[in-house]
Specification:
By secondary structure, the chain is mainly alpha-helical. It has helices spanning 3-20, 24-59, 74-91, 101-104, 120-135, 139-166, 168-176, 184-187, 195-198, 200-215, 217-221. Helix content is 69%, strand content 0%.
Length: 230
Amino acid sequence: MAWWEVSLSALVFLGLHVGISGSPVRQKMVERLAEKGYQIVFSVLSVLALIWLVAAWRNAPELNLWSVPGLSWLPVLLMPIATVLLICAYSAPNPTAIGGGRFLKEENPAKGIFRVTRHPLMVAIVIFSFSHILTSGDLADLILFGSLFMTAALGMPSIDKKLHDRNAESFDRLAAVTSIIPFVAIMQGRNTLSLSEIGILRLAGGLALYVVMLYGHEYLSGVSLTQFSG
């Protein structure tokens, strides 16, 4: 598969999330489709773009750009954090998600994992993509993980802006006790860590997902588990 297809699929995926979701184009689509209609169309397009990107990546020829010996341990070390954040993002009340406005009105708008970061899903993607970029110097990997990294990194301030535009007072209450970078609000004394609010089941679920991804790594990516020990 030619390199142009990997690059084009990455641009389409990034364009959907930055060029549409994070721009005035989104509002124009909402005006035509309504919020629910927009969410359905955007979700379908995002899934299709991601499938195309992954397919192009899997079939792209290898072209190694750099090699950094000794970094093979990095994803193994960081991915448990990413999987816990991922499970928490989808299983806990999310004040930054669509329909999460009701949580912003509560006395404590940030609970559980949102005390750690107000964007657990985006941070999980950043950790996942950045650790893999550093580990692999392959061009196809750089395109795939680079597009995921940019989507998540640019997505966090974009989400914050949309939340602020919808209800500045509610967002300011959330921002006052949370941070984008994990643990910053806690270290600054604006919040406290509560493992009981996160819950043992979410922590266990995140670690279980990590084990599944680790041992399914060769099937998912074609990279053997033994390569992590080299």
